[in-house]
Amino acid sequence: MKNKNFIILIAVLIALILIYVIQQFATGKKSLSESEQVMFPGLDSTAVKIIKVYKRDYPDSGVVFARQDTGWIVTSHFDAPAKNADVWKLISDIKALTGEIRSTNPELLTDFDLTDSLALNIVLLDGNSSPLVHMLVGKGVAGAGRSSFIRKNGENTVYKASENFLSRFSLWDAKPYTRIPINRVVDLKIATIAVDSMQSLQIITKGKTYLFERQQQSSDDSASPARYVWVQTEPAKGKSLEDRDISGIASRLCSMSGTDLLRSDNLAAFGLDKPQYQANVAFNGGTKLSFSFGAMADTVAKTHYTMVNVKPFIYKVTDPVFQGLFENPFKPKESPKKK
Q1: Distance (Å, rounded) from C-alpha 248 to C-alpha 325?
Q2: Which among 154, 189, 231, 333 is most buried, taking Cβ atoms within 10 Å?
Q3: What CA–CA distance (Å, rounded) separates 74 from 82?
């Protein structure tokens, strides 16, 4: 009896499923995957040579990328190196972009922030400056952080897109005139240094020169890996830093990034023609890097003009980084206060 009841239940379930399928087919309803469409199916990523991101009424607020043999640069900002991986991800995301139609009424474009004056333009061009993609990005979708409304240039159809292109340019809920932050698109890493490759480090601060060498420690255990410590070799008198302090300076140089950059041949205007603060690194292979720190770039934000000898840019570096290299390590230690 139990088996008979079970068979009846299975039969009813199958019948209900068949009825549902027939109803869906009869009414023409589609699944979510069927309602989505690839927005730019013919896009060839390798053909993209130029990318423009801007607001139509505020062209100076945007950025322009150009593809070089060495990677992407930001031509709208001193030909600075772009965040290469981020640019390629932007292209790949556009190539894979899918959308669902939400409106075809031109009178509703304002509701989606997709009018010509409100929308963010993203244009991909080939080597002849011919557009491969020109899309307009409106506001993000409430409750769906990964989505935004878009339309193709010259069309009124609004799509709910599978990517949010506002957040990646820090323009979520931003005013139309808001500039795209440079640190979102420019690679502001000043130099790529591995501490293990350093042989010596020279710090020049306030007229004093300190020389530190990375020396191998002797060990009776030949099987264990070599151990290195930093040793101050100059000056012989006065303030002497320990391995921990010197390692801190070296680590700050390795991870040093700017908040912005510019280009200029007038180094004197930035206090970089005769810098009073320098950090010079010698590497095991014989190569060298020289960092120069000049005048204060901004007394409010407290940034310093900085250069490295292998790049044509002048960076702005925050005061805590500067202090960590040239001030704090060399301050006399305070004696413990008496209770």
Answers
A1: 8
A2: 231
A3: 6
Tens of pLDDT, residue by residue over 224-264, are: 677 889 999 999 887 789 999 999 999 999 999 999 999 99
d(CA 322, CA 259): 13
**How far apart, in whole angstroms, are the C-alpha atoms of residue 74 and residue 65?**
5
Task: List the beta strands (DSSP E) in 166-287.
Answer: 198-205, 208-217, 227-234, 260-262, 277-283
Contact 70, 87 (CB under 8 A): no
Q: CB count, 10 Å around CB of 192?
A: 7
Give me the pLDDT at residue 21, please. Answer: 46
**Which of 262, 269, 210, 218 lies closest to 80 in space, CA to CA?**
262
13 touches 67 (CB < 8 A): no
Of 191, 184, 195, whose CA–CA distance to 313 is shortest?
191
Query: What single DSSP character describes residue 189?
Result: B
Q: Give the Cα separation of 95 and 38 in Å (integer).
A: 8
Taken as a whole, the chain contains a residue count of 339
Residue among 78, 87, 96, 91 nearest 40 (CA): 96
The beta strand positions in 144-234, using DSSP E, are 144-152, 158-161, 198-205, 208-217, 227-234
114: Cβ–Cβ under 8 A, 6 or more apart, which residues?
136, 137, 138, 149, 150, 151, 158
